[in-house]
Design a protein that fits this description.
Blueprint lengths: L2 H9 L2 E5 L2 H7 L8 E6 L7 H4 L7 E5 L8 H11 L5 E8 L2 E8 L2
Antiparallel strand pairs: 1-2, 2-3, 3-4, 4-5
Length: about 110
């Protein structure tokens, strides 16, 4: 299994990136709070799970499957792979244009 396959399964086709300290401050996120920007959302097949749930490029993930502490994409991927199961529905909390939104998607 490739890292992209694992990422697709756990993140629903999203690619994430760390926020810069100033971006975190501008969004009102504390240093210990999760804040990962969505830099890519898959568009086809199993890679489109997050997109179908309404996630967009530019959204900032602040919670996923109850994980809210500040981790990078790799650590979040590892935690989700260990703490969730394939087929499990997870809640995602995100910031879009300064407003909090919630959505759910099923892990592949």
């Amino acid at each position: 299994m490739t890292s992209w396959d694992l990422s697709r399964q756990v993140f629903g086709g999203m690619r994430l990136k760390d926020l810069e300290p100033q971006q975190r401050k501008d969004l009102g996120l504390s240093d210990d709070q999760l804040g990962l920007a969505v830099r890519h959302v898959g568009k086809y097949g199993d890679h489109a799970v997050a997109q179908k749930a309404g996630v967009q490029v530019g959204d900032v993930i602040t919670s996923i499957a109850g994980i809210e502490d500040n981790v990078n994409e790799s650590n979040l991927l590892a935690r989700l792979a260990n703490e969730t199961k394939r087929g499990q529905e997870v809640e995602v909390t995100l910031l879009r244009n300064g407003k909090t939104q919630r959505t759910n998607f099923r892990l592949q």
